[in-house]
Recover the amino acids of this structure.
């Protein structure tokens, strides 16, 4: 379908192509556009396709390629990012879950609330919006007005809700920003009614992509919101001897298992059979604008990936180390969030659950970047050191009450 179809248009210097609009009954199964076709910029392309067969049947995927960096946005899975590539370097990880899994095949309540893992293989997946964290019980008020215990499943629902609106956008003037916009609703009768509006963009030949999100409470009464960005990395950036580099103010293990590795929490070990995940909660330093950055740097400091965000919007940072054997998922997760991924009751007690008034919006932004070669890696290391300014982190050997249940 050509870019000039009736669901395309120019808006404020952008060409916009509607790929899905449930309200207007617009749905485009396959579509593509490139710099050659549009005559704007060089080397970029956007391609939308619908997958068929197996657990991926019916999944929509949109690949954005800026000429050096490419990434696949998945509207069917809450506008997460499945995988990417930068100059031949794979971005993401090798999950035991190989294909994109349609939400219809994911039972979130399976295995005591761990069913979310049956579709988990993204480079970046959001957790939330009503809740995230470990499966736990919480109390809600049901449709009769009575209090009721309910199971909050692992990391919430947003990653398994298809987008209601999806648009491709291309800037017609320099810097020719291009990407995908989407709207996902997490809503229920007598329950939360949260609207996620997201824009995932890059520019031609850039080494970064930007995720700009707005969450709005559409209820007529106040409601709670939690949001966490689960950013996951494997080879070629993750390897024995790779390191987390971050401007840490405080760090503590989540539990006794993580305590065993606290002395080397920032160092990546080799793949180990039977490895049990280790999780570390952190408070990070930031620059005078409230911005911070964390990086995973490989052993010889020739490759790195970084995640940048504001501690004003995402004040809690979690490091997830799962250095299991490759076939079991050798991966590390960087997780900036509005809170830590503890049971929601605990985070509510610590005043870390966001409360939105009717129509109130909460905005956050995350930038994912790739750095290849010693010079680029040194640049990102210097940027992190510039935030740290010789501050030594306070490293707690045991879980602390402020961060997790002791």
């Amino acid at each position: 379908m050509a870019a000039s179809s009736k669901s395309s248009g120019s808006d404020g210097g952008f060409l916009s192509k509607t790929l899905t609009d449930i309200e207007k009954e617009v749905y485009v199964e396959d579509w593509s556009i490139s710099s050659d076709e549009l005559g704007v910029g060089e080397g970029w392309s956007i391609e939308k396709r619908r997958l068929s067969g197996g657990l991926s049947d019916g999944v929509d995927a949109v690949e954005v390629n800026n000429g050096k960096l490419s990434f696949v946005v998945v509207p069917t899975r809450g506008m997460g990012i499945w995988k990417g590539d930068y100059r031949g370097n794979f971005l993401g990880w090798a999950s035991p879950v190989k294909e994109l899994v349609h939400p219809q095949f994911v039972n979130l309540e399976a295995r005591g609330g761990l069913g979310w893992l049956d579709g988990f293989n993204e480079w970046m997946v959001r957790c939330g919006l009503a809740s995230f964290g470990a499966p736990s019980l919480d109390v809600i008020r049901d449709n009769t007005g009575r209090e009721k215990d309910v199971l909050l499943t692992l990391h919430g629902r947003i990653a398994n809700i298809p987008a209601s609106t999806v648009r491709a956008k291309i800037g017609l003037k320099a810097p020719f920003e291009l990407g995908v916009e989407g709207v996902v609703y997490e809503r229920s009768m007598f329950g939360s009614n949260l609207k996620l509006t997201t824009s995932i963009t890059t520019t031609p030949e850039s080494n970064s992509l930007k995720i700009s999100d707005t969450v709005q409470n559409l209820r007529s009464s106040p409601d709670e919101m939690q949001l966490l960005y689960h950013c996951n990395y494997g080879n070629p950036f993750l390897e024995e001897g790779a390191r987390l580099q971050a401007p840490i103010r405080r760090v503590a293990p989540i539990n006794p298992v993580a305590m065993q590795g606290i002395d080397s929490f920032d160092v990546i070990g080799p793949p180990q059979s039977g490895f049990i995940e280790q999780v570390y909660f952190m408070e990070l330093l930031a620059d005078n604008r409230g911005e911070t950055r964390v990086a995973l740097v490989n052993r010889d400091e020739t490759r790195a990936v970084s995640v940048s965000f504001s501690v004003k919007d995402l004040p809690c940072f979690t490091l997830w180390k799962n250095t299991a054997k490759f076939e079991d998922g050798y991966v590390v997760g960087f997780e900036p969030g509005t809170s830590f991924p503890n049971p929601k009751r605990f985070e509510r007690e610590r005043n870390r659950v966001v409360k939105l008034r009717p129509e109130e919006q909460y905005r956050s932004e995350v930038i994912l970047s790739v750095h290849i070669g010693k010079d680029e890696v040194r640049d990102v290391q210097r940027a992190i050191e510039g935030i740290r300014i010789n501050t030594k982190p306070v490293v707690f050997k045991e879980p602390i009450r402020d961060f997790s249940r002791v």
Q: What stands out?
A: The helical segments are 35-38, 110-113, 256-259, 344-349, 374-388. Residues 1-6 have pLDDT under 50 and may be disordered.
